[in-house]
Amino acid sequence: MPIYYYDEAILRRKGETVTRFDKELARLAEGMIAKMHEAEGIGLAAQQVGYALQLCVVDLRESSADYNYEYNGARPPKELFMPLIVINPKISIAEGAVESPFEEGCLSFPGIRGEVIRPDRIIVNFQDERGNKHIIKCDGLLARCFQHEYDHLQGILFTDRMLKPMRALIEPEIKALVKLTRESKKKIP
Length: 189
Ligand code: ZN
What we know:
Peptide Deformylase, two-stranded antiparallel ribbon, globular
């Protein structure tokens, strides 16, 4: 399972709604979790491994970041519900949320980081790999991660959300990445 780098076309495809919660889906999600861990990421979207689906995985267990969350109305230790398999997510902005800046990275943009402004408190409704429904209210890094991954599922990348001066600052790195991606594609017969 390779990770697709910018500017592979798959990264721009909106994911299809998942309707079949079968073994194949569970296997794909498990593969994505393994890949995310291998790449030391905190989130990975289906598009990043070549599938245009409303599916992403999230795992913040290794992060020391402080954040609040409510999982299905309770506050279990994160070890009990992470890694998360997030299918068909819908995000709404929580009451009292504030737009805040934070430096993000992305496994499809190796080594590139940049500040993005997003609401700091959200509510996520989603399904797991068996089709069961869940709701998470959260802030901080978890809210940030969900929004970044949700964007991937719509074909939106974090560089799209950067303010112009920020985007201009990393433009040389992005251009170099595009060149590398296109050259590596040419080598494949
Ligand atoms: Zn990303």
